[in-house]
Design a protein that fits this description.
The chain is mainly alpha-helical and about 250 residues long. The protein has one domain. The chain contains 9 helices and no strands. It has helices at about 5-15, 30-50, 70-90, 90-120, 135-145, 145-155, 165-190, 195-200, 205-230. The longest helix has about 30 residues, at about 90-120. About 35% of the residues are buried. This is FAR-17a/AIG1-like protein.
Length: about 250
């Protein structure tokens, strides 16, 4: 017996708002839109800080994009912008685009948090010269808040990622070595590295550092998928695009 068209439309609308393996409705103009709005406000504060507290990096080649922190913050901003647009329009395509972007931005921001706070606990001068060190609230906004907000978005408002281990390693390796080439280009113009640690290492050691970072970022992807499964459950089946819903 055929379903009533109105009931089919209602069921599809419900699916668009909530994937079977996510905790809360998203895209939605409620909690999901609130999280993405709060995130964008936090990211805007961080970018504004760079302009209102200028230093020699502002006039250097590559600007603050020499820092993996700022590259990650930019990706987080793109992710949450797509998320908020999806919330406001209830667009499944924008929702899928947000989730695809999250597969890159969330592992990178977790990497930034792990490396920054880990090295800072050993010696703050490894990651930031004394003259550029930030007040703690601002430091948190740059180096902890983005990863925390992306983690909340993943666990509460996102379907499970479909990326597997080998593509995660490939993606992380490409990002790590593109960043290596970028900072070497910036060094050729500026005569200094953005992070003091890079200057303490020789070329071979820097390559090893970027390779290790790629492995950690890929590991973050696997761990975040595992955490999502444990929080939201796991459903066997064919591979779907993240956020794409079967009719």
């Amino acid at each position: 017996m055929a379903s009533h068209p109105r009931s089919q439309t209602s069921a599809m609308g419900s699916l668009i708002q909530r994937h079977p393996l996510q905790k809360l409705h998203s895209p939605s103009r409620g909690a999901s839109a609130l999280l993405h709005s709060v995130g964008l406000a936090s990211f805007a504060y961080s970018f504004n800080w760079l302009n209102t507290h200028p230093n020699h990096i502002n006039s250097a080649y590559g600007w603050h994009f020499q820092y993996l922190t700022i590259i990650g913050l930019t990706l987080a901003t793109i992710t949450f912008t797509l998320g908020l647009l999806a919330d406001l329009t209830l667009s499944p395509r924008l929702f899928a685009a947000k989730n695809i972007s999250s597969m890159c931005s969330a592992p990178m921001e977790v990497l930034v948090s792990l490396l920054y706070w880990g090295l800072r606990a050993i010696d703050p001068d490894l990651v930031v010269p004394k003259e550029l060190q930030l007040p703690l609230p601002t430091d948190i906004s740059f180096h902890l808040t983005p990863s925390a907000l992306l983690l909340l978005d993943l666990l509460l408002f996102s379907p499970p990622w479909t990326i597997t281990v080998l593509p995660a390693i490939l993606l992380s390796t490409v990002i790590a070595f593109l960043y290596w080439f970028w900072i070497e280009l910036c060094y050729s113009y500026n005569g200094f590295y953005p992070y003091p640690l890079f200057a303490m290492l020789n070329q071979t050691q820097r390559v090893g550092l970027f390779g290790a970072s790629a492995v950690v970022m890929a590991g973050n992807t696997v761990v975040l998928k595992w955490v999502h499964w444990n929080v939201n459950g796991f459903k066997k089946g064919g591979a779907e695009m993240p956020g794409r819903l079967k009719g």
